[in-house]
Amino acid sequence: MQKYSIFNLVKNAFSNHENWELAWKDPTPKEEYDVVIIGGGGHGLATAYYLAKEHSITNVAIIEKGWIGGGNVGRNTTIIRSNYMHDENGLFSEFGMDLWRKMSQDLNYNVMFSPRGIINLAHSDAQMNAYARRGNSMRLNGIDAVLLNREQVKEIIPMADFSENVRFPIFGGLMQPSAGTARHDAVAWGYARQADSMGVDIIQNCEVTGFDVAAGKIKGIRTSRGNIKAKKVGICVAGSTNILAEKLNMTLPIETHLLQACVSEPVKPVLDNVVTFGAGHFYVSQSDKGEMVMGGDLDGYNSYAQRGNLPTLQHVLTEGIAMMPFLSKLKMLRTWGGIMDMSMDGSPIIDKTHIEGLYLNCGWCYGGFKATPASGWTFAHTIAQDRVHELNAGYSLNRFSTGNLIDEKGLGTKTWIS
Amino acid sequence: MLYINCPHCGMRSQNEFSYGGDASVKRPELNKEVSDQEWDDFVYNRKSLRGKHLELWQHISGCRQWIKVERDTATHEIFRTFKADEEVA
To answer: Is B75 an 8 Å CB contact of chain A?
Structure first.
C-alpha cells in the first residue's frame, strides 16, 4: 500500500496527482470466507480492520448493499465523547477515546480528530446536581469531567443566551474537555483502505437476501451477487438490523427511527466546542469549513426513509435559537436524515446469538459514530474468540430478559421519546 | 409534514398528534401464566417493519383519542386510519 506522506504528496505533484493508487480494490466475491461482515459502514469497516490487525484473520469480506460510508457514518454530526454515567458505557467509550487519539497515525489517514471539548448545559439546580453526579461517576472511571458554573460557561461560550428573563436560564454545565469531533468520511475511508491492504475484500453493491443456517450453525449468506459460504458472519447494519433479523426469524429489542441533522452556511469561527442544550435535545458544533453542524430529536415515528420532515427540524432549531440566538441569523445550507437502530434501553448490543457463528452489533441509537473504533475492536474480538470481551460484556442481547438494562437516560422502552 | 385522517375529527396535521408505537403488540392476557419470553416480546421485542406498519397515535391536541394508523415506514404514505377499538382486517 502506498503510504500517505508529505514526500509522496510532493512526488505525486510532479505527475499532476494522476498516479495515486486506488485506496481500495473492487474484488469479485470469493466462494468462501472465514468471516463475512454484513454492512460497510464505520463499524463494519472497523471490525474488519481489527480482525486483520489484532487477530490476524484476513480471509474476510465486507458485504455492503450500497457503497461504503454511505449510511450513518456519512450522516452523523461527528461528535466523539465518553461522558457517560454507567460503567458499561463509560469504560467502553473511554477505551474508544484512546483509539480515536491514535487513529490518524494508526490508519495513516488524517481523520482530523479535534478534541475541542463538549459542554452539556444545565438549566436548573436539579440539573446541576445530576451533572455533578454524572461528572463524579465519569471521574471514577478515569474520564475527564469538569463542572462549570454560569460564569465559567459564559467565558467559554459568550454567544449563548445569558440574559435573566429567559425560559431556560443557563445555570452552568458539565464539560468533558477531551471530547471532540472528527471527520466522519475519513474514518470510513481510513479503515477501508487499511483493511483492504491487509487482504479484506470490500464488496459493494451487494445486497444480502438470506442466510444459510443448518443445525443451529451459520453456513453462509445469500446475496444479490451469489451465495457466499462463511464460517462466521457478523451483522453490522444499524437501521437495517430488523430487516436482516426477519430473515433469521428473530425479533429484536430494536426499532428503526429517523434522525435528522443540518448545517448552516459557513461563517467565521465562533464556536470551538460542542455544546448541548439541557432543556431539550439540541447540539451544535462548528465544522472546520465554518458551518454550524446541528441536530437533535428523532422524527418520532418508525421510519426507514433516510429523509426527514420539517416539524421536527423546526422544533429542534427552536431549541437551538433559545440557546444561541445568533443562529436565527444563519441560512440553512443542507438538511439530511439517517435511520437509527434504537434499542429499548438506549444502549447498544454487541453479542453472540443463538445461532452458532452468527454475531450481532446494533442498537447504537444517537451515538454510533463516536463508538466506531471501540465497536469494531470489541466486535472483532467477539467474532475472533467466539466470546465477548469484558468491555462489551454488558452489551448483551439477553440483558432485556434478565433485567440488566443499561438505561443511561432512564427513558424506558418508548424509543422515539428523547 | 404528515397529514393524518383522525376517524373522529377528519384530516389534521401531524403537529396535533403524538406517536404511540406498534399497534400490533398485544399485552399478555391476565389470569394466565405468562412466560418470560411472552413478557419479553410484549415489552421489548419489535418487528419494526419496513413497509406497511400499523401503529398507535394519539390526537393529543384535538379529540385526545387514541387511533390506529396504517402507514408505510419507507415512504411515509398513510393508507387507512381506524378508531382504537376497531378491528383491522
So the answer is: yes
